[in-house]
Amino acid sequence: MQALSLAVHIPLVCFGIAFPAMVLYMEGLHLRTGDPLYRAIAKRWSKVMLILFAVGVVTGTILSFELGLLWPRFMERFAEVFGMAFALEGVSFFVEAIFIAIYVYGWDRLPARAHLLAGVPIVVAGMTGSLMVIGVNGWMNDPGGFELDAAGNVTDVNPFAAFVNSNVWHETVHMYLAGIMVAGFIVAGVYAFGWLRGKRDRFHRAAMVVPLTFACLAAPVQIVVGDWAARTVAEVQPTKLAAIEGLEETTAGADLTIGGILTIPDGLSLLAQHDPDAVITGLDAVPVDERPPVAVVQTAFQTMVGIGTALAVLAAVYLATMVWRRRLPRSAWFYRAVVAAGPLALVALIAGWIVTEVGRQPWIVYRVMRVEEAVTGAGGIPVGYVTLALVYAGLAAIVLFLLRRLARRPLEVETPEEHR
∠ CA(48), CA(6), CA(78), 5° rounding? Predict the structure, then answer.
């Protein structure tokens, strides 16, 4: 149930992280150039932003209830450790809700620059809200900020120390870049589909180029951040790294296997420690009952890396063409790839979270609390799962209906005189 809810909610988080910045950038282009087309696109996108935020409220509320209902012992024992982060996430949510309302309904009521500034808190709140949740997840992978007494009770709680853990920084940057890629490629893919159907007007060009540029700038940087993340995991969670690579025995100069086909001698040691002779901890370092399911973790990791590499290649083609030839690529295959890039980026995102969460198993709080200790013992879970799936299917149908209805409306392009 929690995995289903996260899979539904995470794409909405990506749009909360990245999409407001794209909307503001488009409005900023209007203010800089005076071109009413940019304002019309930003205005339409702001309505999409509002729809997705509203659905995110529902899915986020379900997740918050699930924490208490599905993981009662976890919440009872550790809530005071990470409660501060969730409280600040709630503050970010309210700020975002207030300013989204002001922004969407203030298009024709606020001066142009004041309206643009009203969107800035939406961008900031979307990022700080996700930062708080990522901080809690980082703490689950590297718990600190508390002590346990002889009876196992939590004492000497320091919420700030819990939040500032070794995982929070790379997880945050990794998630922000992933959010930009998912939102950027999905939005660009919508207009690339229209481009393939012969809609080559300025509207489709501008609405495709802005999110595609955002995503393509993020894609190559994500590879560098992935290296940072791998080194942190090697230090803090060596068993997770062993599961990622299927490394059974602790090895000096461990090889790196790519796709189960290509083997790079000493590659894993070089990647994790920047030393080809470094010792990499294998699965044999922990008992069998403390090892994560290797097949799931390894498959998810290879899926994430494979898609991420393909998206970086797509980004390189786009950026090189735009910089050196100062035009869009002309091949239809490029636009087909852009259409596919959005769903693929989402698959890579979910695969990455599978690596993060399943790779920590059997622990919910790494080496402190097992999943079996934290999970509810209540019955009726299958009924709840089916009900939840039906709710999410209903939400998806509503979103699809609203977005299609919005897309069919004529673009509200105003002349400069009408805008004044």
Answer: 125
Which token pair is 356?
Answer: 């993060």
* Residue tagged 């790494």 (tokens): 366
Element spanning 369, H or E: strand 369-370
> In the chain, where are the structural domains located?
2-225+298-419
Give 25-45 pLDDT, tens digit per residue. Answer: 999 999 999 999 999 999 999
199-214 residue pLDDT tens: 889 999 999 999 999 9
Q: Which residue stretches of 34-143 are H helix?
A: 36-70, 72-105, 112-141
Whether this prediction's pTM lies above 0.85 is answered by yes
Question: Tell me, what amino acid is at 327?
Answer: R
* Mean pLDDT, rounded, of the chain: 90
CA distance 20 to 265: 44
DSSP 178-225: HHHHHHHHHHHHHHHHHHHTT--SHHHHHHHHHHHHHHHHHHHHHHHH
